[in-house]
Amino acid sequence: MSSDLYIEQLRAQFPILDQQVNEHQLVYLDNGATTQKPLSVIDAICDYYQTSNANVHRASHALSNKATTCFEKSRTKVQQFINARRSEEIIWTKGTTEGINLLANIFARQLQAGDEIIISALEHHANIVPWQMLAKQTGAIIKIIPLTQEHCLDVEAFKALLTANTKLVSIAHVSNVLGVINPIKKIIDLAHQKGAKVIIDGAQAVAHLEVDVQGLDCDFYLFSGHKLFGPTGIGVMYGKYDLLQQLPPWQGGGEMIETVSFEETTYNRLPFKFEAGTPNIAGAIGLGAAIDFVNNLERSVLEKHEQRLLAYTEAALKGIQDVVVFAQNLNKSGAISFIVKGEHSTDIAMLLDAQGIAVRSGSHCAMPLMSVLQYSGTIRVSFSVYNTLDEAKVFIKALQNVIQMLQE
Questions:
Q1: pLDDT tens for each residue of 50-98
Q2: Comparing C-alpha atoms, which of 146, 151, 187 is closest to residue 169?
């Protein structure tokens, strides 16, 4: 089967793509913000509410048992998907943002003035602001890995930033703005040599790259379900078992306890110690279905297809007068960012939307990176498995028309 035919068959599983927007066929190129959902995920969520809606772990009746079984099967699917050693290392969260906040709140109890946290100039606000809040609370120091002139992480500068006081390193696997794949294995190894713990924001990576947390040897790895063809409001925090055992819980309430009295509370075993309250059961089941969907894909075919889309689009953009493409000719996944000289990124995005083309514009929750790039915002096109070369060509043609119209 040709790759083009395979992509067409995949597209048929995403009902939202078969619609008109502003009297044009929808071209959805905002997958870095959220991916669309296949029918199998939608059906799994509906099936839970229609046939087994009940709370998990807390009752002996049939519906609760069925819901609990499906819920925990999804945890096992995540474990296998990222090659964690144990299912207890998989903690459900609302998403990557909550996972990073969870860790920041826990480590705030352990860090002190002078301890160092290293992040990078590429980070999403969700991997900046929680550490700033922690630093303000504890007196810890935040250090920033700069970018090279080519807009990739400066690993040599990172080596110089590491000291015996470095306690945490928190880095994106893939930049949400530039699509650059960061050398996280090298970063993890260097940080561990100094005894630092490493947190990886995998939100932009899991839908494009095969992730092996044991191979990476990261201490924590986080991602969001809605960027992996799953529902919103569900995410994952992986943590090494021994570390999770040592860390105290963040939130208190039901499920995370073993015993409670007015004198003392003892905490539940992993992973439930970090899962206070009723979880997003339907979300976890939907994420499990999304992982089933991804596991059934021809990943090698799709990787080549994505690289073809990226290569074509970057080359075509570079051929348009007044377009500046960032992070050119780097190892990328999923996304390309660019600007049009003299034009506001939001104007470009709105005029593309008028032609049915969905892209992202603005700072992409990465204002510090915008300062480095010296622009207030960029236009980002981000691809997924269901995008086609024809869609990329439609986008390029539409962009050329928009620029011509604005410059007349």
A1: 999 999 987 789 999 999 999 999 999 999 999 999 999 999 999 999 9
A2: 187
Average pLDDT of span 92-116: 96
Give the separation between CA 387 and CA 60, rounded to whole angstroms. 45
365 an active-site residue? yes
Active-site residue identified among 46, 152, 218, 365: 365
The residues spanned by each domain of the chain are 3-30+299-407, 42-295
CATH assignment of 3-30+299-407, among 3.40.50.2000, 3.90.1150.10, 3.40.50.280, 3.40.390.30 = 3.90.1150.10
Indicate the pairing of strand 90-93 with strand 24-25.
unpaired
The predicted model scores a pTM of 0.96
